[in-house]
Amino acid sequence: MRGLSPGLCLALLAAERGAQLCTTIRYFSHGQLGCFWGTIVCLVPSYVAQLLSILWLRADGHPPGCGVLVLHILQLGLWKRYWDILRMEVKADSSTGTGEMLMLHGDVCVLRLLEALLQSLPHLLLQAYVLVASEPAGLIPGISAGLSLLSLSWALVSYSRFCCLLKPGHVCLPATAQLCLLLWRMGMLVTRILALVLFTRLYSCWVFTVAGIHWVLMSFWLVALQTDIVAQPCRWRLFNVLLGAVYVFCYINVQPGPSRHRVAVFYMVSTQDMETLTLFFFFFINKASRVCPLMLSCSFTGAAALVVYYSLLHP
Predict the structure, then answer these.
(1) Counting Cβ atoms within 10 Å, is residue 206 exposed (0-12), middle (13-18) or buried (19+)?
(2) Which residue in 101, 106, 122, 89 sits closest to 16, CA to CA?
(3) Residue 313 in contact with residue 183, Cβ under 8 Å?
(4) Counting beta carbons within 10 angstroms of the beta carbon of residue 28, is it exposed (0 to 12), middle (13 to 18) or buried (19 or more)?
(5) What angle do CA 88, 112, 307 make, to 5 degrees?
(6) pLDDT score for 254
């Protein structure tokens, strides 16, 4: 497995950015200026991850030079981090630099997850809305949405894999466990995003009410769990609020100890409201009936992969 995860992440990054570029060009050439500017705007939030990467380089005693700064401005800072890890793995033997590579890998996993949440997720939401609202749906936006979904799901898998590597006595997750994690993430994300996109298509801005209620519930739940990963009280509250926003779409484990009970509670709440919306669309909205079977099948696939993972493959 050495070199596989960084290399795969780098390949997914390149494919996703290439698809985003093609999608932007397509919208501009077809005169769809609203979608064009929306796709451009989705690229802006990832500068948070680039800025954090620069700050971490300085904190680690490696002040970035002009070349590194230019790469971060071009949103290629994480590409360089992945490339550095691959180069270190090629040069190092099995006993040299293991701890350093693990920390570098951990930094880039967290940064990539942040970038995926800030860039890939909004891009995926926009392209999914375009696919649902357009007749016929374009091939290029569909490919771009699929690559963003895969990239976001793999960022979540990489984060889980790194968390397992950090725990004493734990080894790298086997390929079957990573596949279950990927199917779980992709299945649940597709269900969640399609349900919200259909609701947006039918009821416009009322989707913010639905998402806002879920956001508030998740934030209060995180506070009740005493998520003390941040020491200062003000920052602790802000962290829970921001993580609650992420929980509108997916679950991320940030607490030590067994997580299966927290995962069960999260998906009991999330699955219930999404299945309710799905059944509502299926029985009352004829135009959405062709999307509902996809939502239900993805939900079943994600739930099955989740059960298999926590029953048989979780460390």
Answers:
(1) exposed
(2) 122
(3) no
(4) middle
(5) 105
(6) 80
> What's the chain's length in residues?
315
d(CA 127, CA 271): 23
**pLDDT classification of 1: cutoffs 50, 70, 90:** very low
Residue 291: closest CA among 137, 122, 119, 120: 137
User: Which amino acid would we find at residue 116?
Assistant: A
Alpha helices in the chain (DSSP H): 4-29, 33-41, 47-59, 66-73, 77-91, 98-115, 121-133, 139-166, 175-203, 207-224, 233-246, 260-284, 292-308
Q: Which residues, including other chains, have CB under 8 Å from residue 171's CB and lie 6 or more apart?
A: 164, 165
In tens, the pLDDT along 262-308 reads 888 888 877 766 666 666 666 655 555 667 778 878 888 998 999 99
Each residue's pLDDT tens digit, 114-130: 999 999 999 999 999 99
Token pair, residue 285, equals 């909205």
pTM to 2 decimals? 0.90
Give CA–CA dist 238/178, Å, rounded: 31
